[in-house]
Design brief:
homodimer, three-stranded antiparallel sheet, EC 2.4.2.29 (chains A, B), glycosyltransferase (chains A, B), transferase (chains A, B), Queuine tRNA-ribosyltransferase (chains A, B), tRNA processing (chains A, B)
């Protein structure tokens, strides 16, 4: 499934390909998030033609509640339901149970929770989230885990990690003892936890590695801890992960974060940030970011960056984009979402090119600093 | 500017072309409404490539308040501000003063009103709306009129019409005594009023004809009167309008209304209905309309109409479109808006083809009935 083509010499950055029945993904890669089976404000054909997305993400928790498994199964699976003939990764719903559900109770068998929509009661177990993701038919499914909050005590983080480990063993067994519902192969990724404690992170990486998933995710980061601590834990985790498996850092992040984590050996990313921030008027560019609602753009009658190939950057005057945002026009949200995702995928391509020609190390720190600058 | 190519034999339907410096428009035509310089939820390149829009409309009242004339003038006019190199028609703002403004007072010199946004005080006169539209730089500008409500007494409708006539004379003079601000020609259309009174409609048509505008609009209809009365007034008005001028029925309407009014000699239409109703989940098709939020579509796993060339109709399953609307996803609004406008422009092309091959009369009534049917 995963082929490692190159590891950079001075950093841990890697170049690889990940092959699924719906297409091959070049890594490092960013996966746009399509929570409810739609990447907000972006059309499927734009994701392919303009964003050049290679894989998108769907949220099991959300799709299970709306429209529900029956409708997606009747439609022939998630690919068919949303008309997307390219790779899809689905998470396990674990993170949303803890961040969205009104009420949840962790037991050994699984996570009991109430829907954030109507208060209805549900249970996710390591086994049934495999079954739900068999119904969704994602190319890559994630294992059920518990994501402890930051900060958590060492005791809490350890107990949580141990529960996650037991769940992951059960989830892996359920996966190995079941078969795809549709005519394509599915892979399963495990998730490393351990809070911000190096000993637990190390232990978890080893345990999860032994379960021999097709890929390994680093979970429980980017949940409020200082950014340097996130980098540190990522760096430590990748030291204990097998080279031949793809590594996915969940829920990260800003453009600069991606570069720093590629340097620490990460292959895959997902985050709602580019689309959510787009809807708030934050535009990412190769030279830093812009808050389009700022009055400084009101009378700025040139495009932001004529050389960057999105309509937002090269077709429209900044004064017009500012006007759209000031008036909450849907066109503003659509142009900015399309732009930010195109930028993220462009940044990943840049990173891949830099790894390929051995200039990543000399490029990424300065670039990350520039990307974090407000224009 | 306008060339009349053909008038149907059994109905008053006409085939023509309207030539502006930004392009030639085939009539009958529907003009998508871009209130604030954006057709809601549709991208400019989609308007051209997919909708096949030939001309769009901007609202003087809205653009004057936001972003204001200074910003649009600095950007080089409305075409340049919104990046639209095709024809634009702007209304005079008269209708919005009466429908949106918190507070307005009609005087002989013009309409005093307070902004619906911040309560600030403004005055529109027949002369300054010409000047504002010179700044906007629309290809076709409308004259300032008063649009009386329905129902209005004969006395009120007559007084209102007479004020409108005095304003139109002043507005026409202001137009003839001023020049474009940019490097393209502008035309000015007059507006016939007279409420729902045949004698006034006839008088107004004659008066406005004498002012020799480049085109003539029928105003004051589709404001709540019975549909048959709207058809009757339209029919009566076109009998008194010169054949060699384009005729624009303002603010109409549903697909069936368009066909009935083409049969009564109308060349141009505008209405927010296709985009507004799209956002509420009403989808127009050649075989009738659909309310996509209806539960009957929840588990409907086929496209609505594989033969109609929009993504909404032919790419996606109805269950998915239903899901998008039930969850207020922006993609639903975008797909439906794009679809409805594409449908309106397709319907106009159908009508033109039917007029060209002399089958309009035998086609339009049955088609109008079908279009008014709920699927």
């Amino acid at each position: 499934m995963f082929e490692l083509h190159k590891t950079a010499t001075t950093t841990k950055a890697r170049l690889g390909t990940l092959t699924t029945d719906h297409g091959t993904i070049e890594t490092p890669i960013f996966m746009p998030v399509g929570t409810l089976g739609t990447v907000k404000a972006v059309k499927q054909d734009e994701l392919i033609r303009k964003v050049k997305a290679q894989i998108i993400l769907g949220n099991t928790y959300h799709l299970y509640l709306r429209p529900g498994c029956e409708i997606i199964e009747n439609a022939g699976g998630l690919h068919s339901f949303i008309s997307w003939d390219h790779p899809i990764l689905t998470d396990s719903g674990g993170y949303q149970i803890f961040s969205l559900s009104d009420n949840r109770e962790l037991k050994e068998e699984g996570a009991h929770f109430k829907s954030h929509l109507d208060g209805s009661k549900h249970l996710f177990t390591p086994e049934n989230v495999v079954e739900i993701q068999r119904i969704l038919g994602s190319d890559i499914m994630m294992i059920l885990d518990e994501c402890p909050p930051y900060p958590s005590s060492h005791d809490y983080a350890k107990e949580s990690m141990e529960l996650t480990h037991r769940w992951e063993k059960r989830g892996r067994d359920a996966f190995l003892n079941s078969i795809p519902h549709y005519n394509h192969q599915q892979f399963q990724f495990g998730i490393v936890q351990g809070g911000t404690y190096p000993d637990l992170r190390k232990e978890s990486a080893k345990y999860i590695t032994d379960l021999d998933f097709e890929g390994i995710a680093i979970g429980g980061l980017s949940v409020g801890e200082p950014i340097e601590l996130m980098y540190e834990m990522t760096d430590l985790n990748t030291d204990y992960l097998p080279k031949e498996k793809p590594r996915y850092l969940m829920g990260v992040g800003k453009p600069a974060n991606l570069l720093h984590c590629i340097a620490r050996g990460i292959d895959m990313f997902d985050c709602v940030l580019p689309t959510r921030n787009a809807r708030n008027g934050q535009i990412f560019t190769p030279d830093g970011y812009v808050n389009i609602r700022n009055a400084k753009w009101k009378n700025h009658n040139r495009p932001l960056d004529p050389d960057f190939p999105t309509d937002l950057c090269s077709r429209y005057k900044m004064s017009y984009i500012h006007h759209l945002f000031r008036n909450n026009e849907l066109l503003g949200l659509a142009l900015a979402s399309l732009h930010n995702l195109t930028f993220y995928l462009w940044l990943m391509e840049e990173a891949r090119n830099r790894i390929a020609d051995d200039t990543f190390h000399s490029w990424y720190k300065q670039k990350a600093e520039l990307l974090d600058t407000k224009i």
